Amino acid sequence: MDAFELFRKLGVGAKFDLKRFGQDAARFKVSFIVCSLLFDVFCLTEAGGELLKETQGTGITWTSSLDRKIQNLPSDGKEKSSMKRLKHLHQEKVNRIRAQNRINVHGCDIPDPVCTFEELQSEYRLNPRVLQNLRDAGLSSPTPIQMQAMPLMMHGRELLACAPTGSGKTLAFCLPLLAQLQQPANQGFRGVIISPTRELASQTYRELLRLSEGVGFRVHIIDKASLAAKKYGPRSNKKYDILVSTPNRLIFLLKQDPPAIDLSSVEWLIVDESDKLFEDGKTGFREQLATIFLACSGPKVRRAFFSATCTADVEQWCRLNLDNLVSVNIGHRYGSKTWVFHLFRNTAVDTVDQQLLFVGTENGKLVAMRDIIKKGFLPPMLVFVQTIERARELFHELVYEGINVDVIHADRTQQQRDNVVNSFRSGKIWVLICTALLARGIDFKGVNLVLNYDFPTSAVEYIHRIGRTGRAGHQGKAVTFFTENDKPLLRSIANVIKQAGCPVPDYMVGFKKIHSKVKRRLEKKPPKRSTICTTPRFLMKTKGKDQKKGNKRAP
DNA sequence: AAAAAAC
């Protein structure tokens, strides 16, 4: 592709809502980010023509590193100054590509973004078979996060990457992982990917299998820790390359005596949904992650963190602990106080039509739910509730409605969980009731509606839930029920919806921020959620009492 | 606050 063609393509894709941009910039403190962006917009409109002429003459393409080209030029005085000019022009182009794709980078010596997958082969020696597998999967050009994260990983840079739900993060780390490992080797695992749920691990695993088909990489997933202990133990032949796992299964292997797995050859440790895996506290993931970090003891280990939402905590940790960190943000990042909020629209969330629906009370939810079913809806639909118990209850309420409905949560057996996911993928299940288990990372093709039956407890949770629809540029819809009880949290979610460009009643965003005192009180005394049930009260009470008595009498 | 994560 020559410079002209690319310039044209980039020009067509450019859409800056200058009016909105101006308002936002005025409303919030203008930072260097705004300045650099305005500069790029200026370059795009004013300097574009001149730039085009110059690059056409030199035959420089976007796809190769300019420095190398410059080295090949003869270096008398005249050439030298034109070299400088070229270098400058090249930097402007790179800046513009980043601005147009909303790629924000932070760090030193950052490689240029790639604009095509082919560059991974020409510049970074990606196996041509992997490229073919990509084409077979119908993937033609990299998404913004892939454009920047892939060359970074190819240069062995440790990174913290934040990009919207459904914007291709999995591919953004799988491709460079395959490219960096070059070919299968018999020295034990060289790549490890950690996921917060088994469902996500298995999805990533299958994605890796598909990408590496015909290349011979041995990709593994720990599906049963006891079996895996034999497979990867000290006596094994080490014929494996990449491992995908949830934290505890891996730790189980590490804690055997002697350890049933050796991670000392790991070159890449990738933490998917990193803010989730950084969750602290007694039962949080953080300690588990720390154990895994320590086990990857090799001198060559590099680490990469990916998520749609990034907490200040993760960012801080990365700044302190990673080597020459680069952070990449696509659009703007939620959950970090250090970032300038509200400047961009989140591209993934742009593709989701988001609605808030007042249903009055707990009972109103069931009425509204039945109404949606009665009116007819376009399956598949994903329904989020807050607890396992409520997932069960809602399932029992809907199972007689004459629709194909099922339920998934961590209390179901692995077999049941796998079956449910498979049937939902194949379309056998129309309505799937779920807990936070499915909130992150899961890529169901063509979910038409995400229904938040229970109000999400945070904006972050909301973003991940509704991110199950509207993926990879497709259109999706999300409806969120709310009752009187949910009003304290309404403001933050209404703001997310408003930023995404969906209409929200003014009074909602006008709600006062809840004071930390009030918040604490709410945390101590969470509003008691009634159960989901249509059985008349008097029947319930009798049944409940009887059960309790029975329990007490039992020895 | 709940959910998730080993056998």
UniProtKB/TrEMBL annotation:
The keyword ATP-binding applies. A motif (Q motif) lies at residues 119-147. It is found in: Nucleus, Nucleolus. Residues 351-512 form the Helicase C-terminal domain. PROSITE patterns: HELICASE_ATP_BIND_1, HELICASE_CTER, Q_MOTIF. InterPro entries: DDX52/Rok1_DEADc (IPR044764), DEAD/DEAH_box_helicase_dom (IPR011545), Helicase_ATP-bd (IPR014001), Helicase_C-like (IPR001650), P-loop_NTPase (IPR027417), RNA_helicase_DEAD_Q_motif (IPR014014). GO terms for molecular function: ATP binding; hydrolase activity; RNA binding; RNA helicase activity. It comes from the Eukaryota. One of its GO terms (biological process) is maturation of SSU-rRNA. Its main location: nucleus. It catalyses: ATP + H2O = ADP + phosphate + H(+). Residues 119-147 form the DEAD-box RNA helicase Q domain. One of its GO terms (cellular component) is nucleolus. Transmembrane segments: none annotated. The keyword Nucleotide-binding applies. Its EC number is 3.6.4.13. Keywords: ATP-binding, Helicase, Hydrolase, Nucleotide-binding, Nucleus, RNA-binding. Residues 535-555 are annotated as: Disordered. Residues 150-328 form the Helicase ATP-binding domain. The Q motif is unique to and characteristic of the DEAD box family of RNA helicases and controls ATP binding and hydrolysis. Belongs to the DEAD box helicase family. DDX52/ROK1 subfamily. PANTHER family: RNA HELICASE. This is ATP-dependent RNA helicase. The gene is DDX52.
